[in-house]
Amino acid sequence: MGVRFDLRFPVIVAALLVVGLMTVSTAALSPRVSPGIFQKQLLGVGLAALPILLMWWAGRERIYRAAPVLYALALLLQASTFVIGKDVNGQQNWIVLGPLQFQPLELLKLSLILMLPLVMKEGYRGLRSYLLPLVVFLPALGLVIVQDFGGAMVLSVMFLAMLLVFRMPIWHLLIVLLTVGVAFPTVVFPHLKPYQQTRLTIFVDPYKDPRGNGYQVIQSIIAIGSGGMMGKGYLHGTQSHNGFVPASHTDFAFATWAEEQGLVGGIGVLLLYGALIWGLAGMASDAPRLQDQILFAGVLGQIGFQAIENIGAALSMLPLTGITLPLISYGLSSLVSTLTTLALAYVVFRDRFEKMI
């Protein structure tokens, strides 16, 4: 029997959270950013404590039992955005209830990470094994992809990571990748909205439209480069503070951090994410049940892909999709969801040797 707790995991999460709070606090000095975002981010940390404590008390078995209800609720809320959703940046995928504003997508991610392992716990046993996972996944993907292509990408990578641990044949994976590779440029891309098409292609040559669609990426690169080796120092980032970097607290939070902390600070963040992913992989390898291994794969797929995509976009190496940087970008929904998801993984790891439901 392995160790019950891995204390390194919460320390890594706390370190990334500190980086996030520092980034949001300095981004708040930009004239492009609404005041008070640092206080709201702190509020998000406090709000996350409630579901974390609830899961810690409930334990693995009760959490899995609640998965179908959570999944149904998440689908209902995501579907309701088509009727009562608030439009934010051209995407009608937010729900506003008085002072509370949240993105149902975040709850949907969490519910899929819980629900899919329940229907995949027997592993691959022929083509019929895909039926229940697809019945669970496709409705969620269909509701999201209409309004949020970046969110749909996150869900798809999560599902793919889970399928790999599900022990799907490699040749099935190759068929899926080939199908996506053919269908995306010929079927999906032509039906995307013009601004979505531009965001997916402008990273190749942002200087083709430096005052328009390429402006954000160019300013991000300038900010990161201006940080040099050691950075300009905390609260001394001129590019972000003077409003040159758009979305310096969300899409380009990494640029804000790298400008002030330099190459050393940027590499430090990459190492922290690497350690977090390594920790999740270690949890999966130490879990005796395939069901729990699949859950860890979903968490790893979500966190890992979001980190790679966000940082890659800030460096003009990947398309700009509006995906947040876990634990660092500003956003109450994203922060609470990410902390809850990581706490879920930790609780399942804690209880991995207990009786199976």
UniProtKB/TrEMBL annotation:
Keyword match Transmembrane helix: yes
Domain of life: Bacteria
Subcellular location: Membrane
Its membrane topology: Multi-pass membrane protein
Database matches in InterPro entries: FtsW/RodA (IPR001182)
Source species of the chain: Deinococcus sonorensis KR-87
EC number: 2.4.99.28
GO BP terms: cell division; peptidoglycan biosynthetic process; regulation of cell shape
Pfam families, alphabetized: FTSW_RODA_SPOVE (PF01098)
Keywords attached to this entry: Cell shape, Glycosyltransferase, Membrane, Peptidoglycan synthesis, Transferase, Transmembrane, Transmembrane helix
Molecular functions per Gene Ontology: lipid-linked peptidoglycan transporter activity; peptidoglycan glycosyltransferase activity
Gene Ontology annotations for the cellular component aspect, listed alphabetically: cell division site; plasma membrane
Chemical reaction(s) catalysed: [GlcNAc-(1->4)-Mur2Ac(oyl-L-Ala-gamma-D-Glu-L-Lys-D-Ala-D-Ala)](n)-di-trans,octa-cis-undecaprenyl diphosphate + beta-D-GlcNAc-(1->4)-Mur2Ac(oyl-L-Ala-gamma-D-Glu-L-Lys-D-Ala-D-Ala)-di-trans,octa-cis-undecaprenyl diphosphate = [GlcNAc-(1->4)-Mur2Ac(oyl-L-Ala-gamma-D-Glu-L-Lys-D-Ala-D-Ala)](n+1)-di-trans,octa-cis-undecaprenyl diphosphate + di-trans,octa-cis-undecaprenyl diphosphate + H(+)
Family per similarity comment: Belongs to the SEDS family. FtsW subfamily.
Protein name as catalogued: Probable peptidoglycan glycosyltransferase FtsW
Transmembrane stretches, start-end: 37-57, 69-88, 100-119, 131-164, 170-192, 262-282, 327-349
